[in-house]
Specification:
This protein is mainly α and 124 residues long. The protein has a domain at 34-112. Helices cover 66% and strands 0% of the residues. The chain has 4 helices and no strands.
Amino acid sequence: MKTMILTLAAATALSAGAAAAQPYGWGRADSRWMSIDARQEQIAFRIDQGERNGQLTPREVYRLRTKFNRIARLEARYRWNGLSSAERVDLDRRLDMLTQEVRIARRDDDRRYGYLDRDFYPPY
């Protein structure tokens, strides 16, 4: 009985240590493991989802889509003669910044409607 408990305790300790030793982002959709096209699809989906849910105002949607389209045009220009490693790093940096902007804009609790909207003030 003691041997079994001791074996289970050792196995638990080893598995906990192995899980802590894995690199950050292992097994999840992290930007380091996704292609540029997959990241663009994910960003576009998050912008559309934020618009549908009301988490993004129309002005935020316009601003984010404009930045997204600029990055897409830049990518097309880079891919014309093949994507170098420096260009890939530049696109990754720009997509990281846009991903962060989308995340912040979706969580900032701006209202979809304007300042004097009827939902803003309580009814009298």
